[in-house]
Write a structure and sequence with these properties.
Helices cover 31% and strands 25% of the residues. α1 runs antiparallel to α2.
Length: 306
């Protein structure tokens, strides 16, 4: 079993903790350098947590549990227009990243106005390439209830945020609802806003834990972090990608930020325990920038194929 952690510290001697992670059989999930500071999201064997904490203390850094590390979350706004996207949605995105999440902002093409709002099949497919979807909606109760068609056909866990209190039974196709996060024309810095963001973090963690528990009954044949590590070692092109996290971990797969047409065969032939990745995963063209989306097959589906 692995625990996901975040290490925060200086760049000086940062190679020491990276080498320790490798020596312990752990994995670096995400690495960010901000001026002279380093932030590492990692997965470490549970029995070795004390060794990581000791090394962090030696380097004058800090280690905290990152329950969302190794996941990818879609934050969906009705449109990219200024009255929908800024402030609440952006602050939600920034706040979740503090807890290890890799999130993507998605603005729908037809969300402006209750009368014309809509969602396309391609937008649904893009959202479903994530572990969880958060729909950041507005301030009117009936408007949020009437927009059920935006999310009731999405086959991943859906969390809706809005300003009013709404009974979950009134929201078709929603797993959880978090109030007090409506359309706010300013940064979410006040006490009530911070409390709402903390409630959202708690809700996302619970939804992810439930998804992990469901996966234990029929898990992927190998953990996604193993696949991430293998791709990074066997496909040199990922080291030339300028985007953050060129291989992004998800609960049951990875997103590889390489062009599908040029690199999908190389990804398909990455060896995982002497088997090509294409034998244990569904490898597709992503709806995001023609990247490569690797969705790991479950143990039962592989047995059935045999």
């Amino acid at each position: 079993m692995y625990e996901t952690l975040t290490y925060s510290g200086g760049i000086h001697k940062s190679e020491d903790i990276k080498e320790l992670i490798d020596d312990l059989g752990g994995f670096i999930l995400q690495e960010n350098i901000i001026q002279m500071d380093l932030v590492l999201n990692m997965a470490i064997p549970i029995e070795d947590l004390d060794k990581i904490k000791e090394k962090a203390k030696e380097l004058l850094g800090e280690v905290s549990v990152a329950p969302m590390a190794g996941t990818e979350i879609a934050i969906v706004s009705p449109t990219l227009a200024r009255h929908h996207l800024p402030h609440a949605a952006c602050d939600i995105s920034e706040y979740l990243r503090r807890f290890g999440a890799k999130d993507n902002m998605i603005g729908l093409a037809r969300g402006a106005g209750k009368g014309i709002a809509g969602i396309t099949r391609s937008e649904i497919s893009l959202i479903e390439e994530h572990d969880v979807a958060i729909f950041a909606l507005g301030s009117f109760k009936q408007c949020i209830i009437d927009k059920f068609f935006l999310y009731n056909n999405i086959n991943i866990p859906v969390i809706v945020t809005g300003a009013p209190d709404i009974d979950l039974n009134d929201l078709d196709g929603v797993d959880r609802y978090v109030p007090d996060l409506g359309r706010i024309p300013r940064r979410l810095k006040r006490g009530e806003n911070i409390r709402a963001l903390r409630e959202l973090v708690k809700t996302v963690e619970e939804v992810l834990d439930n998804k992990r528990k469901e996966m234990t009954s029929d898990p992927p044949i190998v953990p996604s972090i193993f696949v991430k590590n293998a791709i990074e070692k066997q496909v040199p092109a990922v080291n030339e990608v300028g985007s953050p996290t060129p291989v992004t971990s998800q609960l049951n797969g990875v997103r590889v930020k390489l062009n599908y047409d040029r690199y999908h065969e190389e990804i398909e032939n990455v060896l995982i325990e002497d088997k090509p990745l294409k034998n244990i995963a569904d490898i597709r063209r992503s709806h995001m920038y023609d990247y490569i989306w690797v969705n790991l097959l479950s143990e039962s589906s592989i047995i059935q194929d045999l």
